[in-house]
Design a protein that fits this description.
It is a single chain. By secondary structure, the chain is an alpha/beta fold. The chain has two domains: 38 residues; 104 residues, Rhodanese-like domain (Oxidized Rhodanese, domain 1). The protein is built from four helices and four strands; from the N terminus they run ααβαββαβ. A four-stranded parallel beta sheet has the order 2-1-3-4. 26% of the residues are buried.
Length: 161
C-alpha cells in the first residue's frame, strides 16, 4: 500500500487519473464490504442473548419450541415484534404484539417488569437495542429471539389481537 507511486504520476494525464480513481474506488468497496460483514457478525451475535433473569427463556430459542409456546397461547410470556409497524402488518409470529423500537418508550406501561418477554426483529440487532434500553429501565426477564426469518411456518398478517 505504501510502495512506490504509480508510474503515471511522472506524466499526469487521463491514464493517471484513471489509476488514482480505481485505487480510490477499490478502497471504498473494501470499506463497504467490511462494514456489511461487521454488521452481520454483530447482529448475529445477539441472537439468544438473555438479560440477567432471562436465562430460562433460552428453551424457546429453537423455532419449534417457540411455535409450541405460541400455539399454547401462553400469556405469561410476552412476544414483542420491534420492527416498524408496516413490517408487522405484512407478517409476524402468531401472538406477537407490535411495539416498534422507535416507539418502545411509549409502551413501557404495557410491559410488566416481572413478566418474561421475548423480542425479535429482522436480524436481532434492533431487538438488542430495545433490550438494552429495557434493562436500563429495570427489566430483567428478556430474551432476544433474533430475526423473524427463523420462523419456519406461515406468518400471521394484520393486527393482533
Amino acid at each position: 500500500m505504501w510502495g512506490r507511486a504509480p508510474a503515471c504520476l511522472a506524466v499526469p494525464g487521463v491514464a493517471c487519473r484513471r489509476v488514482i480513481y480505481n485505487n480510490y474506488l477499490m478502497t471504498r468497496i473494501k470499506i463497504v464490504i467490511l462494514s456489511i460483514l461487521s454488521f452481520l457478525i454483530l447482529t448475529a451475535c445477539f441472537e439468544g442473548y438473555t438479560s440477567s433473569d432471562g436465562g430460562h427463556l433460552k428453551v424457546y430459542m429453537p423455532p419449534d419450541t417457540m411455535k409450541e409456546l405460541l400455539e399454547k397461547n401462553n400469556r405469561e410470556i410476552m412476544v414483542i415484534d420491534v420492527r416498524p409497524f408496516n413490517a408487522y402488518e405484512k407478517g409476524h409470529l402468531p401472538g406477537a404484539v407490535s411495539m416498534p423500537s422507535s416507539e418502545i418508550k411509549n409502551h413501557l406501561s404495557e410491559i410488566e417488569k416481572n413478566r418474561d418477554v421475548i423480542l425479535y426483529c429482522e436480524t436481532g440487532g434492533r431487538a438488542q437495542q430495545v433490550i438494552k434500553y429495557l434493562e436500563e429501565e429495570g427489566y430483567s426477564r428478556l430474551m432476544n429471539w433474533g430475526g423473524y426469518t427463523r420462523w419456519e411456518w406461515d406468518y400471521t398478517q394484520g393486527i393482533y389481537p
